[in-house]
Amino acid sequence: MLYTRNLKLSNLARGARDTVPMLVGAAPFGMIFGTLVSASPMMPWHGQLMSLSVYAGSSQFIASGLIASHTGMLVIWLTTFIVNLRHMLYAATLLPHVAHLSARWRWLLGFLLTDETFAVVAGHHQQPLNASERRYAHWYFLGSGLAMYSNWQLWTLVGLLFGTLFPGLQNMGLDYAMVATFIAIIVPQLNRLPYFAAAVAAGTFAYLLQDLPYKLGLLSAVFVGVMVGVALSRSSVTSRESI
Amino acid sequence: MNFTVLILGMAIITVLIKAIFFILGDRLVFPAWLHLALSFVPVTVLTAIITPMILSPHGKNLELHLRNPQLLASLIAVLVCLISRRQLLTIAVGLMSFFFFQWQFAG
Fold first, then answer.
1. ipTM
2. What are B63-104's pLDDT values in tens digits?
3. Cβ within 8 Å, pair B91-A95
4. How many CB pairs under 8 A join A and B?
């Protein structure tokens, strides 16, 4: 019993530990969000409620902007839907690792899914895991999710309380922590041509389409990248069969 | 506008998007081509998120030159990752070079 508990806790801790660079990267965004709320028609506690219940950074940013420009509720809901659509892709990708869990676990892990936690958990599953690491991988997921969640609450609160005291926060470049972490996750996967080409295509289109609103540029770039990857895998299969 | 209703609506929409596949989970059987397509999601999403942050860190304009700390630090991080194959080292060296270049170019 004690042994099992230790395994759960050690996977939980490892998930949290592997998420640390993401915590640094998300901190300024949480503070900026808090500051935005203070400058909007919302009450400060609405900002915390949004971080606690919605827990999706980009859509929280966009919503507070839309609220400040007096957009209607239905439009904000529709925008939330579109901006968060990418999470469906994340969930579909991670599904094989959670499908065996209880409904309670799956709701919880679904709620905790973010860009950062997806990156960390997907990276974890790309490594060679032993039997117990595979068995307790949902604790790793939970550790990553809880670390991001509490971090997001903390920095939202700091932003709500003290945001106006740090006006230069956007320009400090703390978000580079996310870039460095993503590089460390991406590069080891580029050793096969379809994955390399998919990444190049997705990066190119993400750059070209970055001005599209509501993360539509990101979604289109991922779509193009996936198509390129699938096409190249198919053609390599066909050419192997023809030999 | 009732902000509490607005926020709770956003919360419900978001959690449904995030969790629906997890919940349908065992009842959902993906065909092989979809499995193949999904295997490209991590590498494409992560690259799509960071490429604009590296190439045009200040928004619109392409900053493809050696006074762009994001670009320089990312090239170094890629090299470190290729050579060492160590995640933590890559992140640490990448971050340190970024802050170093940012400080260097600040003047």
1. 0.87
2. 888 889 999 999 999 999 999 988 889 988 998 999 999 888
3. no
4. 256
Query: Structural domain of residue B24, as residue ranges?
Result: 1-30
Tell whether B14 and B35 lie within a shared domain. no
Do B24 and B63 fall within a single domain? no
Residues of B in contact with A205 (CB under 8 A): 48
B36 and B83 in a single domain? The answer is: yes
**Chain B residue numbers touching A113 (CB-CB < 8 A):** 18-19
If one counts every other C-beta atom within 10 angstroms of the C-beta of residue A134, the result is 11
- Measured between alpha carbons, how far is A205 from A220 in angstroms, rounded to an integer? 8
pLDDT at A241 exceeding the cut of 60: no
Clarify whether residues B25 and B49 are in a common domain: no
Contacts of B76 (CB under 8 A, 6+ apart): B93, B94, B97
Residues B17 and B57 occupy one common structural domain: no
Question: How many structural domains is chain B composed of?
Answer: 2
Distance separating alpha carbons of residues A207 and A204, to the nearest angstrom? 5
